[in-house]
Amino acid sequence: MARTALLLGLVASIFFQTALAGLYGESNLNHTCAIVKNELSCSANAVPGLVDSCCVETFGGLVLATQFWSTWTGLESEGQLLPKNSWTLHGLWPDFCNGSYTQYCDLSRQYDPEPSPKTTTGTPSGTPVPPYTGPGIGTFLATFGKFDLLAWMNKYWIAQAQPNQDFWGHEFSKHATCFSTFDTECYGPSYQPHEEVVDFFTTAITFFQRLPTFAWLAADGIRPSNTTSYTLSKIQASLTAHHGGLPFVGCTGPRYNATAAGKGSLDNGFTQFSEVWYYYHVAGRPQRADGVPVDTGSYRTNCAKAEGAVWYYQRARGSETCVR
Ligand SMILES: *[C@@H]1O[C@H](CO)[C@@H](O)[C@H](O)[C@H]1NC(C)=O
Ligand SMILES: *[C@@H]1O[C@H](CO)[C@@H](O)[C@H](O)[C@H]1NC(C)=O
Ligand SMILES: *[C@@H]1O[C@H](CO)[C@@H](O)[C@H](O)[C@H]1NC(C)=O
Ligand SMILES: *[C@@H]1O[C@H](CO)[C@@H](O)[C@H](O)[C@H]1NC(C)=O
């Protein structure tokens, strides 16, 4: 079957300049998703061969919509600020259905100036991921006239200690290249270079906008504070009730039992609330944003679990901008 596809691809390339670069080396013909069933990712039918992997996510079917809470950017002096009353977009990640994952799946679409990890496996035996030195990924949007998208991204998709577009390049190349549904073949013979980059950004944004973490927590009395701390289970309960699945709740900062409050405790979880990862299975391609919320797997949190051990800090003065 692969051989047949390859042959057809070679013949078609004379007319269509077929590129067989994706996760499955599929042809760029016949990916009309409107006429195929929107199977749910990670279901029994969502496997290559049974479905069009351009129309149903068959590679990274456990989709994570991830967000950050940070209190500073490090590039405030250049106007890189955090949006008031909102978390920021981290990314949209394709985990395997069992929760493990791959990264940097197509080095021909490597736009990350600071690859992390530096090889595809994160170990010295993996394939090196060369740092990208070309024009920032944000410049790709101009070709498509998406200046509004670029402006939105500079408000809500904010990096820490690096320019925003370097972070967007990281998110795209590390993660988006590991979705079957963002393979360039899926876009057909008239594919425009970077078309799928715009598609990935807008898809990640669509998920993000349905996950108003700040407002959800605030509705349950959990607001940024430098004087009141919170209990992890309360944060988890709030987010689970609003989203429909238990998300991963991430923390940074000192470990609880390394702080004065946790002295003598055996709880060595981190104390500064900083991340949420919402999990989904998706019906049809993720671009449709038809997600079914699911619980995170066994990795639920790295935060301290003790009563009142978690800090949801206010942003630093001067790190936040007013949006709308
Ligand atoms: C595309 O679809 C047409 C019509 O069903 C079919 O004849 C052709 O073989 C398909 N080509 C590929 C590469 O799948
Ligand atoms: C998880 O699934 C992937 C993709 O099917 C597979 O390659 C990997 O070996 C699995 N990992 C585990 C720990 O089962
Ligand atoms: C912190 O907790 C860990 C895990 O329970 C324990 O091994 C360690 O000794 C504790 N450290 C301190 C300083 O209490
Ligand atoms: C709140 O605390 C965080 C963490 O220590 C700090 O970065 C931030 O500047 C503080 N914000 C305010 C408004 O004091």
TrEMBL record:
Keyword terms of this UniProt record: Disulfide bond, Endonuclease, Hydrolase, Nuclease, Signal
Xref: InterPro entries: Ribonuclease_T2_eukaryotic (IPR033697), RNase_T2-like (IPR001568), RNase_T2-like_sf (IPR036430), RNase_T2_His_AS_1 (IPR018188), RNase_T2_His_AS_2 (IPR033130)
Source organism superkingdom: Eukaryota
Pfam family, one: Ribonuclease_T2
BP-aspect Gene Ontology terms: RNA catabolic process
N-terminal signal peptide: 1-21
EC number from the UniProt entry: 4.6.1.19
GO MF annotation: an example: RNA binding
Gene3D superfamilies recorded: Ribonuclease T2-like (3.90.730.10)
Cellular component annotations (GO), alphabetically ordered: extracellular region
Active site: 90, 171, 175
Classification via PANTHER family: RIBONUCLEASE T2
UniProt record similarity statement: Belongs to the RNase T2 family.
Protein name (record): ribonuclease T2
Organism of this sequence: Podospora appendiculata
